[in-house]
Amino acid sequence: MEFLSLANERRSVKKYDKDYKMTKEEIEKIIETAALSPSAWNLQQWHFLIVTEEDKKEQLKKDAWGQPKVSDASASIVVLGDLNAYQRADEVADDWIEKGYMPEEGKAGLVDTVHQFYQDDQIKRDEAIRGASLAAMTLMHAAKNMGYETCPMIGFDPEAIRKDFKVPDHLIPVMMITLGKGEAETRERGYRRGAKDIITYESFE
Q1: Which residues in the chain come in under a pLDDT of 70?
Q2: If exposure means fewest CB atoms within 10 Å of the residue's CB, which of 94, 156, 180, 181 is most exposed?
Q3: What is the pLDDT of residues 30-50, one digit of tens each?
Q4: DSSP alpha helices (H): ranges in the chain?
């Protein structure tokens, strides 16, 4: 699908065909596209908890305060931000060296710079949320391009999800996304602020 059409047609869909089952291959294709998202130093701060089994979706539904779309969708995805992504700096450096982006003697300096930058816990958290959010938007566009609907969600108890799904401490729930064959939204799109309302050129002074 041409991108402007895709962006215009993507909507947050709340009703899904509960009998429709996406294949594992389809879901993974969408995730692979999401993984093309940008991130600082290519650290890729995202991880995806994909819930497709009926009993697990019912548990996730409880953690999302009973919202029906969580269990009706083919998959409900918890988008997680990785607080420890900076620890992959060695992998990034090795890849850059292999591709000729950086000389081998630059590896130690790059790894040290990355580790120093992420010493601050607030930066770790901000970057985890930022990276996961970029991947989440790509995921939604990729799903729409394949004919599937999505809905991003913040209506859930992150600590309940952490407990019920044994989420490791270094992964933080950023948002949920329902994914499946949905009833495409036909209502007129809600109000959007125009460019003149959301742009300031050069400075606020």
Answers
A1: none
A2: 94
A3: 999 999 999 999 999 999 999
A4: 3-9, 24-34, 54-63, 68-72, 89-98, 107-117, 121-145, 158-164, 195-198
